[in-house]
Amino acid sequence: MISNHTGRTLSSRLRHGLFAASASGVLAFALTAPAYAQETGGEAGNTAPQARDGENGVIIVTGIRGSLQRNLDAKREAPGVVDVISSEEIGKFPDSNVAASLQRLPGVSIQRDGPRGEANGVTIRGFGGDFNETLVDGRRLSTATGGRSIDFSTVGSDFIGSLAVYKTPDVAVGSNSIGATIDIAYPKPLDRPGFHMAASASGSIQNYAKKVVPSVGLLISDTFADNTFGILADVIYTRHDTRTNNVYVHGFPGGFYAPCQLQGSTATVCNPTDDTTADPSQVKSVVGFFEQQYGAQQTYTKDERIDGRIALQWRPSDDILLTLDDNYTEQRINSNTFGFGIWFNQGSLRNVVLDDNGVPLDFTQAGSQTDFTAERASNLRRTNQTGLNVKWNVSDNFEVEADGSFSKSWLNPDGRISSRGADIGYGFGIGPTLGISIDGNSSGAFPSLHDYGANGDPSRWADTSVIGSHVTVNIANKNTDTIKQARLSGKWTQDDLTLTFGGTYLDDTFKFRSANTFGNNFWQAYSGYGPASGTSGGVAIPLDLYNGMVGTGGFIPGFDGMLPPTLINFNAVDYQNFLTSLGNPQAGNIPGYNYGCCNGDFTGTFDVADDVGSYRNISEKTWSLFLKARFETELAGMPFTFTAGMRQETTHLSSSGLGRLPLSITPSTTDPTLLTVNFGPVQPVTTKNNYSYFLPAVDVKLEVMPDLVLRFDASRTLTRPTLNLLTPVLNIGTGQRIGALTADGGNPTLKPYLSDNFDLAAEWYYQRNSYFAVNLFLKNVSNFIVQGTQRQTINGVVDPSTGQPAQFTVSQRLNGPDATVRGIELALQHTFGDSGFGFIANATFVDTNKPYDRSDISQSGFAVTGLANSANFVGFFDKYGFEFRAALNWRDEYLLQFGQVQNTGAFGAEPTFVNASTQIDLSTSYQITEGLNVFGEILNLTNETQSTHGRYKNQLLDVYGYGRRFTAGVRYRF
User: Fold this and answer.
1) Considering only CA atoms, which of 559, 299, 569, 287 is closest in space to residue 447?
2) DSSP state of 769
3) pTM for the predicted model, two decimal places
4) In whole angstroms, how large is the CA radius of gyration of the chain?
5) Is the pLDDT of residue 150 over 60?
6) How far apart are CA 64 and CA 437, in angstroms?
7) What pLDDT is attached to residue 602?
8) CA–CA dist 971, 477 (Å, integer)
């Protein structure tokens, strides 16, 4: 069944009803289908109520086709470029993950959390998460991660009404996103009077984890007092268990080799030096890269999330509507990891074989330490947002809306230790002359370890009789982000003219605290690998701490490369408990304890100490005024809509931290690879910054023919620096390693990115539920923030390993050059008559005048991140109560960021690229009765992996195998 009108022939009364719809309404509660955010004079979250059966002669279509048609209606009616994803019915969103749904749209791609495999962020038109603003019912949502983007894995999708993606800005909503603004709309009780209930229950299993885990949800809504008062409440529990395999290179920094280090050298000695007057064979003069740390690990993650929501509405008169709501999310992510990691220093490598790009295809390192690692990570994320909205229809022409909300997010509010680490192994006296070979690029091969094992014997790779303790790292991160916001707006509508005006205030306060065992040097308490390695530090590990061996055969599907045969499965908490059980080294002599490490403060427990350099208190207050005019008329008989707006934003920033300077560096007495930085007194530092910008926008829409729409849009938008970059101090870690001294600094005077945007689009709605669109876009972006990295001395401290002034690799941010991003989006949606079959296909092609230059080894390299061509195809069937959907998503290789896990190179911040990827997902459902529905889903059908590389394609950084996920469940609605 279909509606008796098309988007072009909507009655005038219905069209004006769309424009005047409530900002809190969601089409999800209009009969069985949700309402979706549409541009209705500028208010965020405005929605259009769907007619019920018999009203206006409209029959509602549910399911895939009904959802897609509502999406097209919203897209067509909007004055700017907007894409919408709507729920098929109450409690039936197209995907179980919000980001996964968004990637079906043109120009939208996703990022995945490697260990979990979850889609946790989006890139829109080449601009990543921090360039895209996410709203909930028109309000900013706080996030304690330190960025401006939210982690979409923390947002439950079960009872979402719609997602609207504004690719061109609406000045009444905001202009704070160069990529796009995403508005998540939730249902309200008065959207659909009466009693309603929706429930869902499912079980899912990841084929690696081999454990079925539950997800359940319940929504109840009712109205009272002649439908003038309503209450809606829902709660969702979701759990995902995931086992992930990972091969990694933590940093592929660049530097210089001495000729004596290269394979074929005839030099009798090799002591690489920077002294250019030395023997040329010893002078570091050959450009090359190296693997800072190489390893493999397996992680089991338990991800649990609770979403709760309540919404109260009261309509005391026909002209006034009050809405009070509260949204709560709590996510607990616990994981256990075990594996191995081996550290390399460029100066100690020998027999090096370099390719034409300076990538080492093979090398050896004498006396290498072999580390077996474990980690127990536990993080609690909590967010609560409370809001009050009042709408008042003052007259037939004038409306007023007031909205206020308070949102706060916490990371580990209970003060838990977020990461407990264990590092054991062997080396020094029995350290092998091992090496790494590279044979293939990072999309199909990982580096291979060779000549491993105690004393170079591969059969003794995991010889537990020689394994001893090394370092013990505990970290406790604790963040909060608090947002207070208010909006007051008015709208005047007369004939074909609509004026929208008002102002907003937003106060965002971010606090970051971190404590760790580097701050008190407890991480070195039992370093040294124990007596089997020939040192005085460390203790032997008892056999009962080992939980067996895990084979590495077929570790990463579809990848070549050779790993050692096994990983040792052990638990970080058990390891730390064992060391604690040895007693208090201050009360009696404990062989293997590092008595030179901790100033007598270590009494047996691995307590954390405040990391002074990590402290950040950042306050950002922004005032905005906006004015928008929308005019509808005809040009030569063709409907014409012209919208012009302006927004003035003024921001006051205050950033505080604790600064300190290094006074000296001391070596470890038990492990010659470890260093400790000693500091002077702590000094509080506060920096202020103010800026103001004028942000105009123009949208022009012309309906050339009843089914053909042309658009032109021009605007200026901005994206503010992420809050965690605005610290005013240079943070130098207490615990460091030889050859890898690092420091990281923020910059509170950073300016926002500014972008002048232009869109030119044509949309052809050639039949019901079908359209073809072409959209050309251009973005001229200035004030790009780049990460500058350079090696320098700090306060004249001396590196005891060289006897020379210590060279720290210092990373800092600054506003850099301008760049232009241009692209084209193609979209086609087609249904084959009344057959039930159809498809959605789209592709995005992007380019820039500032691509990455791999040959540039200067410290000032720059390129636009996030840009990649992408394509999506969704084929579906929807008839006879049966639905089936197959979705293919492809994204080409792209530059993710500057910087790697170990950032110690001489050529600035080395890049991280994400390799091209393709993922296929399947979903299906069957309507048993009007209210009862069963469903199933398969994610990552072809078992694709996720991999990244450095400057060159054969510099693998990470590859994750995260398997397939199968879900089956039932939904019921009443």
Assistant:
1) 559
2) T
3) 0.86
4) 30
5) yes
6) 51
7) 95
8) 39
